[in-house]
Amino acid sequence: MTTPTQSNAVGWYLGSVGTFMIPAGIQMVLLPYLLAIELHQPAARLGITQMFGQLPTLMFLLFGGWLADKIDPRRLLMGLHAAAALMPLILAYFLWRREVTEGVLMLYALAWGLVTAFAMPARDGMLRRVAGTNIQRMVTLALGIQFGTQLLGQAFGGRAAQFGAESIVLVQSLVLAIGIIAASRLPAGRTAPAAAQAGRQSLLDVLGAGMSMIFTDAPMRAAFLIMLGVGIFFSGVIVVVIPLSVRDIYAGGAPDIAAAFMMFGLGTLASIALLTRHGGLALPGRAMVLSMVSGCSALLPLAFAPPFWLFNACIFVWGMSGGIAMSMSRTILQERAPPTHQSRVMAAHALSTAGGGPLGSLLMGFTVTVLGVRWAVLVPVAGVAITTILVVATHTIWRLRSPSLLA
Fold first, then answer.
1. Using CA atoms, how far apart are residues 292 and 288, in angstroms rounded to an integer?
2. Cβ within 8 Å of residue 341, ≥6 positions away
3. Phi, psi (deg, nearest 5) at residue 195
4. Burial of 35 by CB count in 10 Å (0-12 exposed, 13-18 middle, 19+ buried)?
5. What pLDDT shows up at residue 198?
6. Given a cut of 80, is residue 369 above it in pLDDT?
7. Contact 228, 121 (CB under 8 A)
8. pLDDT in tens, 41-73
9. With the C-alpha atoms ordered 219, 220, 225, 229, is the resulting torsion angle positive or negative?
10. Angle at 364 between CA 297 and CA 240, to 5 degrees
11. Region of poorest pLDDT, from 6-15, 90-99, 101-110, 185-194
12. Beta-carbon neighbour count of residue 77 at 10 Å?
């Protein structure tokens, strides 16, 4: 049974997730809007800018996981929220002076990626401490809050043309500042055994410990490889193909980009609601594989430039598939990772998707240039399908059972 103290911890944990993901949702819409609509970047340059914005996550996620295992992640999250709250204020200054350039937006994206690289493993590493034995339920709840609040941020970011980008980023800063309070109420403390081990190992060994554990455990390795395929091939669809499709095929603007992103978030929320109502899934590996099949199938119609309502419906179904894949992959790793390496294992997991993002953005930017925005979507569909087939052929993830499944 959940104690009152644990209930409070769960509430503050979900609050810390929400106060980071609302600004993240704003960022997801505002940055491509400013690049594609306001500055009229061509496809290749948009892909390059998005790639550079994701590079800090690729470079510092493992370090962020090590740091979260070494020091108090509560204090780390407080500091990250404070630093992140300053970044929109600086962008607001350039927006107010009408001096926003590609360079300014790239620096803003780089700073956001750096904060994210440390915030993600710190939050993920605390989840099991807050969840107790109900790991799959807590993973699902956290993902629901993550995408629900991200959806709110995307909806607000989509009003940039109406309210002005300056107002949007000021709200972004305010929500991040509120997150300092939520983070301050989380359980304090660090994992002492991990800190002791760190003193006897080289920094390289410590940083790679999470990845090493994943690759020595077959179920964790299988989940990682599938999500790596998602990161490399599907992330570019979100940050490159969707904004350019809205601009070039449907002649849309910021509200339409936000609508498409919101469809993905709503689909994710729908699948998470179903998972919560069902009580979880006994076979998380099988669910991951089937979600890849449904996700690839949902994206195929985009190659035929369907009506905008059908375009959004496909994104919705794709989001449902993504919600299942993310929930089950995180469940597999949270259940199997030792407490001393929780943040590092989850940082390595995040690296599979976020780390594949820069390559995916670059790949899709040039793919759109060569094939056009319509047919470019066939490349990520093929990439994810091939990756999933290879993993299923070489791993036993199909029959993996979840020990924390609620009855």
1. 6
2. 69, 194, 209, 210, 213
3. -65, -40
4. buried
5. 45
6. yes
7. no
8. 776 677 677 677 777 877 887 788 878 778 888
9. positive
10. 85
11. 185-194
12. 24
Strand ranges, E, within 266-313: none
Quick one: tokens of 401?
């059972």
Nearest to 290 by CA among 271, 304, 309: 271
Rg of the chain over CA atoms, in angstroms? 20
State the Cα angle at 279 between 277 and 283, rounded to 5°: 125
Q: Check residue 67 and give its pLDDT.
A: 83
Q: How much is the pLDDT for 342?
A: 73
**Cα torsion through 309, 315, 318, 319, rounded to 10:** -120
Contact 244, 46 (CB under 8 A): yes
Q: How far apart are CA 366 and CA 364, in angstroms?
A: 5
Which of 97, 132, 112, 172 is CA-nearest to residue 9? 132
Q: What is the pTM of this model?
A: 0.71
pLDDT score, position 191: 52
Contact 38, 359 (CB under 8 A): no
Any idea which residue has 């940055």 for tokens? 31
Report angle CA 300, 304, 307 to the nearest 5 degrees: 105
The domains found in the chain, sorted by start residue, are 4-188+202-399 (1.20.1250.20)
| pLDDT tens digits, 274-332 | 888 877 788 899 999 999 999 999 999 999 999 999 999 999 999 999 989 988 988 88
Both tokens assigned to 98: 């009408």
CA count, 13 A, side-chain hemisphere, 405 = 14
- Cα separation, 335 vs 136, in Å, equals 8
Q: What three-state secondary structure class fits 396?
A: coil
